[in-house]
Specification:
By secondary structure, this protein is of the alpha/beta class. It is built from 6 helices and 11 strands. The protein has 2 domains: 129 residues, NAD(P)-binding Rossmann-like Domain (Rossmann fold); 103 residues, Dihydrodipicolinate Reductase, domain 2 (2-Layer Sandwich), CATH 3.30.360.10.
């Protein structure tokens, strides 16, 4: 039986990549493609909803999916722990699968997990991320997820130290960690998690060079997982056993 997919934001960069993956994936078919301004009533009849829209639209897509009782895979950026917490009671009542993937890149998931694993050993941490100038939101969902995982990993040690965090130039605070966003042409995606302690610094860097090539394996894994899930799941590391399982 073929899984009929409603793809929201299918004309954007990520949406086009997801569409291509579905076209090449046995057992899946794109039923309808919606834009960010489409009537969400068009979601009815789908077996799986995939959201690659914008942060402002994404919350409405998830709500519509829960009302319809249709599982949803969310690749849209901008979903912090705080925002996801608003969805948890609705998902728990509906028992409808909601899967959030801040970044479909396996290397990105591994980089975030490594940063979380290192977090208890350092008192200072910052995240610097860069994306193309057309990216709407900042900081990126990947940077938010990384900072949240790093902070969660320090429950026993307490929060990172972030001196002069009240100054705007110190970046946006995400779970107490300064996050800095660069938006410029000539880059696809880059993230640096910088952890520092007495006499040393550990920098974990991930570069996306070709988004289609980097995201395709993760999308292929996430689609059947999201179709079959009955839980709320955040992060590709919960789909792929990367050997390091961060909390959060």
């Amino acid at each position: 039986m073929t899984t009929q997919v409603a793809l929201v934001g299918g004309r954007g960069n990520l949406g086009r990549i997801i569409h291509a993956v579905i076209d090449d994936l046995d057992g899946f078919e794109v039923r309808t493609v919606l834009g960010s301004d489409s009537d969400l009533g068009e979601l009815a009849g789908a077996d799986l909803i995939v959201d690659a829209s914008t942060p402002a639209v994404s919350i409405e897509v998830v709500r519509a999916a829960l009302e319809l009782g249709v599982n949803v895979l969310v690749g849209t950026s901008g979903w912090s722990q705080e925002r996801i917490s608003l969805v948890r009671p609705l998902q728990s009542s509906a028992r409808t699968g909601v899967v959030f993937i801040p970044n479909f890149s396996l290397g990105s998931a591994l980089g975030s997990a490594l940063a979380a694993a290192a977090a208890p050993f350092f008192e200072f941490a910052e995240v610097v991320e860069a994306h193309r100038d057309t990216k709407i939101d900042s900081p990126s969902g990947t940077a938010v997820r990384t900072a949240e995982l790093m902070a969660d990993a320090r429950d026993a040690q307490g929060p990172f130290r972030a001196p002069h965090a009240d100054q705007r130039a110190r970046g946006e605070q995400v779970s107490g960690i300064p996050v800095h966003s660069l938006r410029r042409p000539g880059v696809v995606a880059r993230q640096e998690a910088v952890l520092s302690g007495p006499g040393e610094t550990l920098t974990i860097v991930h570069d996306t060079i070709d988004s289609a090539a980097a995201y395709t394996p993760g999308i292929r894994l996430a689609l059947p997982f999201a179709r079959d899930s009955s839980d709320l799941v955040v992060g590709l590391e919960n789909i792929v056993d990367i050997g390091i399982r961060p909390r959060g």
